[in-house]
Design a protein that fits this description.
Number of helices of chain B: 16
Order of helices and strands of chain B: HHHHHHHHHHHHHHHH
Oligomer: heterodimer
Number of helices of chain A: 6
Structural class of chain A: mainly alpha
Largest sheet of chain B: none
Order of helices and strands of chain A: HHHHHH
Largest sheet of chain A: none
Helix content of chain B: 55-70%
Radius of gyration of chain B: 22 Å
Helix content of chain A: 55-70%
Number of strands of chain A: 0
Number of strands of chain B: 0
Strand content of chain A: under 5%
Distance between the termini of chain B: 18 Å
Chain lengths: 199, 372
């Protein structure tokens, strides 16, 4: 076995272990902050797997989009609403766990079946495109995948406008939670007085 | 355009002379440029810290460090030693694991980004095809480290600082990436070596700064914001937040943040010089000078000379920009958080989008000037 293949094997083993253990941690850990940071680790290791498959552009895009944007926003949201309160105990927790485990196992068996029955066309390392892939991805995005590409951008635009409408208070004249008319002058004004008189 | 020193090839040939296989030679070669670049980055930080102290002193009519070495040049080393031997404190109510992982996550992506900084045709660690995109992707990991250390410190000022850092970093990444995209559009490649070669046609006249003046200014502002340098140092605004996410840190962990921010500053300056100021190119093309003096460009002596000239030019341009950044830090007031976000989203983003569109149009109209 040559040095390159050994290195690749070690990297693959380590990355796969990190992905599996990290993903289990995301689901099973009690602390939501740890889950969010572990999710970032899982995304990074997936990017590493792409890198092993010679898809450097996809790996960098994975880091930029999933780690740099999605995961940062998740952590950001968790920290902005970081309430230290215990979750309410659920009565029928055992039966819920059984149901969710069986659903997950069914999905897993489906995936394993697809993996075993599908005939994978493995390309040899000689005809992998490597650095060319950036150009090839661009060509595909603007020719045969143009419609999905544009539809995705419309979807993102809709989400963005929705977020702006939800965040802007002057769109609505009444506060949803209290029913009082919204003060249009000062958006940052607190609904409760900040300093309470303790005398 | 394949000329210039290829140290890797010569080194491997040299080792093969001793009867080693090419694989072993490659493994012996691999750590050398990495170590060299790491040492260069750390020395660069020491120089920048000294410059910062001296220039800030001059801006405030003080003398600055004077006793440690001539003109105080050993002061940064003394600072570093002090930080190395200080006690490493983890606050009692802090989250130990995240508290330790935070500074590492801030520093590692910055050092990894040095992978793509070229000092000459073959004088870089790896000419990866995605080049400059790798830097953009790696620099987007940093806010996670900042949020992590802000949260783990269990201190409201740290958390606020971390949140500010992440918000700032996300908002300024977009105009930064768009102005890089305009350059990539002109080069037809993401590789930093190709970007420099595309500017090397006519010396100073062919530098990208003349074709992308708007992109240059947008990139520089965004790079300063990403480095959290003073007009934009809100995450660590000392009057409001003590020291932001660094408040609870001491000793070597604080030093990691410190190193990270200065390495990032030098890296940004290097990338501005690569993207807009011709990289390792001399203001007058070296080929023209060699032709004028009747010297063969491929002779070993000339190659060593041009390679050293290239390194000197890259470092010179980068430090000129570092000087401007330091001068800006000590002469401009800090912006408010709403002004910062307004500048990023309402001014720089539309401008860089328009710049990208205009560049695309000009590329179609004048392919000989804007890359065919």
């Amino acid at each position: 076995m040559s040095i390159a293949i050994t290195t690749q094997f070690i990297c693959f083993t380590v990355l796969s272990l990190v992905v599996i253990i990290g993903a289990l941690g995301v689901v099973l850990l009690e602390s939501i902050v740890y889950s969010a940071f572990l999710l970032g680790g899982v995304f990074m290791s997936v990017a590493g797997l792409y890198l092993l498959l010679n898809a450097s552009f996809v790996a960098a895009a994975q880091v930029l989009v999933y780690v740099g944007a999605v995961n940062v926003l998740i952590i950001f949201a968790i920290m902005l609403v970081n309430k230290k309160e215990d979750l309410k105990p659920i009565n029928d927790i055992k039966s819920r766990r059984v149901i969710s485990t069986s659903i997950c196992l069914t999905l897993l068996s489906l995936l394993i079946r697809v993996d075993l029955t599908n005939v994978w066309s493995l390309s040899s390392p000689q005809n992998s495109i490597g650095e060319e892939s950036t150009i090839r991805i661009g060509e595909h995005l603007f020719s045969d995948y143009l419609l999905p590409f544009e539809v995705a951008s419309v979807l993102l635009l809709m989400a963005m406008i929705g977020a702006i409408v939800l965040a802007r208070r002057d769109v609505m004249t009444k506060d949803i939670s209290t029913g009082l008319p919204v003060d249009q002058e000062l958006i940052e004004k607190s609904p409760e007085p900040l300093l309470t008189n303790k005398n | 355009m394949e000329y210039g020193l290829d140290l890797e090839y010569s080194f491997n040939e040299f080792l093969k002379g001793f009867g080693l296989s090419s694989e072993i030679a490659h493994i012996i070669w691999l750590p050398l440029p990495m170590l060299l670049v790491l040492v260069a980055a750390v020395v660069g930080v020491l120089v920048t810290v000294w410059l910062e102290r001296k220039i800030s002193a001059a801006a405030q009519q003080r003398i600055g460090p004077e006793y440690a070495g001539a003109l105080g040049v050993l002061q940064p080393i003394a600072d570093g030693l002090k930080l190395l031997v200080k006690e490493d404190i983890i606050p009692a109510k802090a989250d130990g694991i995240l508290f330790t992982a935070g500074p590492i996550l801030v520093l590692v992506p910055v050092i990894l980004s040095w992978l793509i900084v070229p000092f000459g045709q073959n004088l870089l660690i790896s000419n990866v095809g995605i080049g400059i995109f790798l830097w953009i992707a790696l620099s987007s990991i940093q806010p996670i480290g900042l949020l992590m250390s802000g949260y783990a410190s269990n201190n409201k000022y740290s958390l606020l600082g971390g949140l500010r850092a992440a918000a700032q970093s996300i908002s300024y990444e977009i105009p930064l990436a768009l102005s890089v995209l305009a350059i990539v559009l002109m080069t037809n490649s993401l590789s930093t070596v190709d970007i420099v070669n595309q500017q090397s046609g006519a010396g100073i006249l062919s530098w990208n700064i003349w074709r992308q003046p708007v992109g240059f200014i947008v990139f520089w502002i965004c790079a300063l914001a990403e480095c959290e340098r003073l007009p934009f140092d809100l995450p660590e605004a000392e009057e409001e937040l003590v020291a932001g996410y660094q408040t609870e840190y001491a000793g070597m962990k604080f030093a990691l943040f410190y190193l990270g921010s200065y390495i990032n500053l030098i890296l940004s300056a290097l990338l501005v010089s690569i993207l807009y100021l011709g990289g390792w190119g001399f203001p007058i093309p070296v080929e023209l000078i060699a032709k004028f003096l009747n010297l063969p460009i491929n002779a070993p002596f000339i190659q060593v000379f041009t390679a050293s000239l290239g390194i000197v030019m890259t470092v010179l341009k980068a430090y000129l920009l570092v000087f401007i950044a330091i001068l800006l830090r000590w002469t401009t007031p800090r912006v408010r958080i709403d002004q910062l976000l307004d500048l990023g989203w309402k001014f720089l983003l539309p401008i860089s989008l328009a710049n990208l569109l205009i560049t695309a149009g000009l590329k179609l109209a004048f392919p000989q000037f804007f890359g065919g």
